[in-house]
Amino acid sequence: MNILLTGGAGYIGSHTIVELDKAGHSVVVVDNLVNSSEESLNRVAKIIGKQVPFVKADVRDAVSMNAIFDKYKIDAVINFAGLKAVGESVAKPLEYYENNMNACFVLLNVMRKHNCKNFIFSSSATVYGDPAIIPITEECPKGECTNPYGKTKSMLEEVLIDLQKADPEWNIVLLRYFNPIGAHESGLIGENPNGIPNNLMPYITQTAVGLRKELGVFGNDYDTPDGTGVRDYIHVCDLAAGHVCALQAIDRKCGLAIYNLGTGHGYSVLDVVRAFEKANGVKVPYSIKPRRAGDIATCYCNPAKAKAELGWEAKYGIEEMCRDAWNFQKNNPEGY
Ligand code: NAD
Ligand code: UD1
Questions:
Q1: What is the sign of the dihedral through the CA atoms of 91, 96, 97 and 98?
Q2: What tens digit of pLDDT does each residue of 198-213 get?
């Protein structure tokens, strides 16, 4: 298939190009580079041996999006484009709602006009809020999102569900990602956050490389085995491979389908710190800080549905995630 990746220069998008190429698909990327660099696509070219077609454009720009669909015959779209910093979304709600919602609306309209009705959406475990069931299955009711970023994911899921109901020709897969970390084993592509990282793994790698003094552990009084927050970390290459399997579901005319993409294992913040130190032989100085607003104690999934219906399951464990995250950071201490 010929797949359009919106936001394809970003962290998950760049790794997904590699997996799509491996599976024999062709890729076109559109990205406005608001949170990424074209260098990631040059690095991908080194891995797969060819440059993928890239259009620098904002997905909210219908003229540019129409031009892409006029130029390329697109069979399916994977929509990675979006702003994703939780704290920033609280400070700039209008920008987040405007970007994430409008980009998706423009894209869906352009797709419909070109009779391309196959869509994969990057959703998030954040739609479960403080989950009612652990491990989280797809049947777990959605919960209260505490920030505008999470609300854009939850609202767009509803939009997509209604769209598919109104026009069953659409095949729409909502992929609820748990916590992607790690990098491609080559060390050429990886997570490259702007400024001070918000998420745990990039903060750990930047501390280990000496860019940050110490990791702040946000709370050690949660109702978890060691008191620190527990999450379902998943290797970004496993996550990327999940998109290839989702395309197979689309090919089988799945209608609407929802899948958790996680490993099913929960690791605490201190588990991750220890695993990182063990895998890489480096120290990660840390100190306990107050809880971060909006955080929950425990979030990990039951990935059985994706295994049963997509034949997908995570291959990599926490050691490989830590090894590959460090490999990218070491090779790219200043990012791309
Ligand atoms: P990322 O920021 O690295 O990639 C997103 C890309 O979208 C960036 O390259 C950015 O430049 C681009 N973009 C943003 N708005 C755009 C617009 N209007 N037009 C064109 N391009 C635009 O983030 P990522 O980690 O690769 O995440 C990809 C998707 O997965 C996002 O939608 C994110 O919300 C979702 N997601 C990520 C995580 C995570 O932990 N990384 C977890 C759950 C869901
Ligand atoms: C966060 C977002 C979530 C988003 C996900 C992936 C919040 C509340 N949630 O999830 O919406 O989908 O990222 O982008 O921000 N931690 C520390 N010190 C740090 C950073 C994190 O102790 O410097 C802890 C957190 O408290 C948490 C765990 O590490 O227990 C994981 O945090 P993080 O990587 O930010 O992911 P989530 O909070 O799960």
A1: positive
A2: 999 999 999 999 999 9
Q: Is the pLDDT of residue 194 over 90?
A: no
Q: Rounded to the nearest whole angstrom, what is the distance from the C-alpha of residue 34 to the centroid of ligand 2?
A: 21
Ligand approaching nearest to the C-alpha of 34:
1
The residues annotated as belonging to the active site are 149
Task: Measure 80 CA to ligand 1 centroid, in angstroms.
Answer: 5
Q: pLDDT at position 64, please?
A: 98
Banded model confidence at residue 108, pLDDT cuts 50, 70, 90: very high
Ligand 1 in reach of 12 Cβ (< 6 A): yes
* DSSP states of 95-121: HHHHHHHHHHHHHHHHHHHTT--EEEE
Report the alpha-carbon angle 28-153-17, nearest 5: 25
The residue whose CA has the least distance to atom 28 of ligand 1 is 80
- Confirm or reject: Cβ of 321 under 6 Å from ligand 1: no
Q: What angle do CA 180, 19, 313 make, to 5 degrees?
A: 55
